[in-house]
Design brief:
Blueprint (H helix, E strand, L loop, with lengths): L1 E3 L8 E7 L6 E6 L11 H4 L1 H5 L9 E4 L2 E4 L2 H19 L4 E5 L5 H15 L4 E3 L2 H15 L17 E5 L3 H4 L4 H9 L3 E5 L12 E3 L6 H14 L5 H7 E2 L1 H9 L3 H8 L3 H13 L3 E5 L1 H4 L4 H14 L9 E4 L6 H6 L6 E2 L3 E2 L3 H11 L13 H9 L5 E5 L3 H4 L3 H10 L2 E6 L11 E4 L8 E4 L4 E5 L12 H11 L11 H12 L11 H7 L2 E2 L25 E2 L18 E6 L15 H6 L4 E4 L1 H6 L7 E6 L2 E9 L7 E5 L28 E7 H4 L1
Parallel strand pairs: 6-7, 6-16, 8-9, 8-12, 9-10, 11-22, 12-13, 16-17, 17-18, 23-27, 24-26
Antiparallel strand pairs: 1-2, 2-3, 4-5, 4-18, 14-15, 19-20, 20-21, 23-28, 25-26, 25-28
Helix pairs in contact: 4-20, 4-21, 5-14, 8-11, 8-12, 8-14, 17-19
């Protein structure tokens, strides 16, 4: 069967061959040629079929009765939803019901989930876990460029860049099939700069590694910008003709002291100068950011500063030049474009814009004033749950009890809900708390489109037959809408039919998919957006002649030096940062069900420098109690000289007592509402001492 990987934002294509045997069937996974990964697969993609075929898959609806799950029919499941949603809506209003989505849903399901919330439930409370992935970069791109697309150019431009900055991204473990683009760039003579508190497989490729103190990326870029301006590496013509705000930026940088920057970032002055000179002098260059920069309480401003650097050097809108936000989730890009975010309608339209509301209302066959207004971000929804403003929650394709910061608080809130529905493939940590669980199909069964990190829309074929009582997520939404008396708005019979409506809904919006069809996607192996007409090739490189703001210019901004929302202290003397490991994805709900992937990394761990470990009497490979103001977890120590002495690292793929988000900081970026996952203050001690 032909399909594509369900995990990261590259969306590699593959073919899975099933071999029938007497005792059991075996499977061969073959990479398929494609423009993004060039026919490569990583270990996650090679073994993704294992979770799809797992015996742990949810096979039928289950309701909780006296604390235990019992099997129920779909009819009974829908009756429970109708009864509870209707009662709560009548008693507390439509906003008493919240909807929480996921960045791995197809475009069709993401679009339909947004429509379901606003038309079937008429609630303003909808957001999704992509808020924790792309919100800082998305808001920065919109403000600086007038448009947010993961990459401003094709992946094929990477080997043409003469200098590349990889900031807060560990591509070697998170998007490993992209690494050959960067190795080719280096073979072509590119100077690669990595910015990360840790040594990783990605930093090993770098010519210069800036081992920045967690949370100090914006200040580091201020130092680089000052060198670029003072030493004459600005593209004056580009800055004058194609940007606004350069004068104000120069005034701000005149007051920056490089020695102060070196001290507050922990990066030696000579390295700051070296990085700035390398990028400034290069004829072509690209900047990439990811969660290490973005999952901060100043993530929006940090990304804006990296965009300042690309803009004042004129390294955008040209061959071998551009900016890329390395999307984390498989459809983190498409998921926010078509309605899962609290403030957005399909086509990247604003829910607060009267013209946008009127257009979408016409497509959906409702009146503009029937559409609810703007809700709140994903973590703020958990606060609304805690405050009992949201009294029922519908979760689809997400595991918020593990993925949210301050997870103990989130769990306490979910226990207050009067009704929790979870639609998923597995009994996740969140599903265990549900009153009703609905089984959904896997990537091998559910056809649909996804938008990769380039902004390339891809069609994922799916030919495997679903288990008897399992349903596609979009089918579940249609059936619930019918139960609620809204069937006329949700009478779809195939994913392609939903996409045809999505095309119209996106038409004329920033993320315009109107010219994209399933037929085109099959023939052309993906089409870039914006694509406003059937004869349009899709915009492969953005901003060649102008930016998307009125007037065509990009906006620069002066960025003040920001410190993390939480500082170390005597009680909590270490910085904690988080991230991924090669064999797992997100909260591990799927990858921990793959026997091959689980065997490679079956428990969580804490990376700590040997000198720091000695100071706190921590031995290698021992159980550790790691604590912050919000709680504690138990992980296994891993001594390594590859990390700063003031910092520890824990991956994010495990729940329960190993869930690192039980201790991460819930403080939010004031612009994009991204939580500050990547830095909080902790202490660490051997578990035996805490007994």
């Amino acid at each position: 069967m032909d399909t594509q990987c369900p995990f990261c934002s590259v969306q590699c294509k593959m073919q899975i061959v099933e071999h029938f045997g007497e005792k059991r069937n075996t499977y061969t996974v073959l990479p398929k040629p494609n423009a993004a990964s060039e026919g490569r697969l990583c270990i996650k993609g090679m073994n993704a079929y294992q979770h799809a075929l797992s015996s742990e898959r949810l096979a039928y609806p289950m309701a909780k009765v006296d604390g235990e799950f019992v099997r129920v029919s779909w009819e009974e499941a829908y009756r429970l939803i109708h009864s509870n949603f209707t009662q709560l809506e009548q008693q507390y209003g439509s906003d008493a019901i919240g909807v929480y989505g996921g960045g791995s849903l197809t475009n069709e399901s993401a679009y339909l989930l947004g429509k379901f919330a606003r038309v079937a439930l008429r609630t303003k409370y909808i957001d999704y876990n992509g808020r924790f992935c792309m919100s800082a970069a998305a808001s920065a791109g919109n403000k600086a460029f007038g448009i947010d697309r993961g990459l401003t150019n094709q992946l094929s431009d990477i080997p043409l860049a003469r200098c590349i900055i990889l900031a807060g991204t560990n591509i070697a473990e998170c998007q490993p099939t992209l690494m050959p683009y960067f190795t080719r760039a280096k073979e072509n003579g590119a100077f690669i700069i990595a910015i990360d508190p840790r040594n990783t497989g990605t930093t090993e490729l770098a010519d210069l590694h800036l081992k920045v103190k967690p949370g100090m990326d914006a200040a580091l870029v201020n130092g680089m910008l000052k060198v670029i301006v003072d030493d004459g590496y600005v593209d004056e013509g580009f800055a004058k003709e194609r940007t606004n705000g350069f004068g104000e930026l120069k005034e701000h940088l005149a007051n920056v002291d490089l020695n102060d920057i070196a001290e507050m970032t922990g990066v030696p002055l000579e390295q700051i100068r070296g990085a700035a000179e390398a990028f400034g002098k290069a004829a072509t260059g690209m900047v990439f950011t990811a969660r290490g920069v973005e999952q901060q309480t100043d993530g929006y401003m940090a990304v804006r500063n990296f965009l300042n650097m690309a803009l004042i050097t004129g390294k955008i809108g040209k061959e071998g030049c551009g900016y890329g936000a390395i999307t984390g989730q498989g459809n983190g890009q498409g998921g926010r474009e078509h309605g899962q975010k609290a403030d957005q309608l399909p086509g990247y339209r604003s829910i607060e814009n009267p013209a946008d509301r009127a257009y979408i209302a016409e497509v959906w066959g409702v009146q503009p004033d029937e559409l609810p207004g703007k809700g709140v971000s994903a973590y703020e929804m958990m606060e609304k749950v805690h405050e009992e403003e949201i009294r029922a929650l519908f979760v689809m394709g997400s595991n918020p009890i593990v993925s949210n910061p301050n997870a103990n608080f989130v769990e306490e809130g979910l226990r207050k809900l009067q009704f929790l529905v979870v639609a998923d493939m597995f009994l996740s940590e969140t599903a265990r708390m549900a009153d009703l669980i609905l089984p959904t199909s896997s990537y091998l069964e559910n056809e649909g489109t996804l938008t990769n990190l380039e902004g390339r829309v891809l069609l994922r074929e799916a030919s495997r037959v679903v288990l008897d009582e399992v349903k596609h997520d979009w089918e579940i939404l249609c059936s619930i809408a019918e139960t609620l008396g809204k069937e006329s708005y949700f009478s779809y019979t195939a994913a392609e039919q939903i996409f045809e409506e999505l095309r119209v809904a996106s038409r004329g919006g920033i993320a315009d998919y109107y010219g994209i069809t399933y037929d085109r996607l099959r023939k052309e192996e993906g089409v870039y957006w914006p694509c406003p007409s059937l004869d349009h090739p899709g915009e492969k490189r953005l901003f060649e002649t102008s930016f998307a703001h009125p007037g065509g210019k990009a906006d620069l901004i002066a960025v003040e030096n920001h410190f993390p929302a939480e500082q170390v202290s005597g009680e909590f003397p270490l910085y904690l940062t988080t991230g991924r490991v090669l064999s797992h994805y997100l909260t591990g709900v799927q990858t921990r069900r793959s026997h091959t992937l689980a065997a490679r990394s079956f428990e969580s761990f804490m990376e700590i420098h040997p000198a720091t470990a000695q100071k706190y009497r921590i031995e290698d490979d021992s159980l550790i109690r790691l604590e912050s103001k919000r709680g504690g977890i138990v992980v296994r120590s891993k001594l390594t000289r590859e990390i700063r002495e003031d910092t520890v690292f824990v991956p994010m793929h495990w729940g329960d007592i190993q869930n690192v988000n039980k201790i991460t900081n819930q403080a939010l970026d004031p612009t994009c509402r991204m939580p500050g996952f990547k830095v909080c203050a902790v202490n660490a001690r051997p578990l035996v001492e805490s007994v």
